[in-house]
Amino acid sequence: RKALNHELSKLFSDMWDMDVNRLVPGKDYTIDLQGKADVAQQGDSAVQDSAARHLFHNVNEECLKSIKTFATFISLLDNYETSTGMAEVVTPEEIVENNCFLDAILATEVMKLAHEYLLKKTLAKPNLADFKYQLYDIWFQLYARKEGDRPDSCGFEHVFVGETRRGKQILDLHNWVQFYLQEKRNQIDYKGYVSRKNKTRPHKDDQVLSIQFSWKGSVKPIG
Q1: Is the CB of residue 70 less than 8 Å from the CB of residue 63?
Q2: Largest CB tally within 10 Å, which of 16, 26, 78, 165?
Q3: Using CA atoms, how far apart are residues 171 and 160, in angstroms rounded to an integer?
Q4: How many Cβ atoms from other residues are within 10 Å of residue 181's Cβ?
Q5: Whole-angstrom Cα distance, residue 103 to residue 72?
Q6: What averages of pLDDT result for each successive group of 10 residues across the chain (223 residues)?
Q7: Of 196, 184, 177, 186, which Cα lies nearest the Cα of 216?
Q8: How far apart are CA 75 and CA 97, in angstroms?
Q9: Among 120, 114, 116, which Cα is nearest to 138's?
Q10: Which residues contact 91 (CB under 8 A, 6 or more apart)?
Q11: Which are the catalytic amino acids?
């Protein structure tokens, strides 16, 4: 397991370094960390707010519009009903948007490296069109959650868009672009940063943060 963890760690580092589309802190965006978030529990509807202002002070939106991977990604964010238990309806236009996003990311060196790695592990098809189909199935194929047998979720929605369960719990939402856009519309309320082990306070240029926020009437203790 240690060998595998080391191998994956190197892969992720290489993918990170290859990402020429990544925005640069202090240049393309700035954040305002403010205070440390109080302890909260899953299901809380209200917590102490340690941040009076937005997390994102500014973002160069021209990058989001001009870089194809960002632009095609953003077009997908309004395609979902975020409440679990509500059946999703996928339109022909949304299918086109899904495919445009996959085409954009598969053209990057980051995804080429990911494809090469998965080929070595015999986890991907050699043909790029077949690999795209695999990704489509993993990210966009609908499935039903516990609330019922209606197809109400998919991998992409769960991880990148975020979902709510019975209005009391926020599921996933692990993407800074979605966070920024929701915060800009005053749909997300940033509550403060969450300290990681052996670190009292994150730096404003850190590109991986643990934070606390509220969204759609629920609080995510750590996101």
Answers
A1: yes
A2: 165
A3: 10
A4: 19
A5: 9
A6: 85 96 96 93 83 98 98 97 88 98 98 97 96 97 80 93 87 95 97 81 83 93 86
A7: 186
A8: 7
A9: 114
A10: none
A11: 158, 174, 220
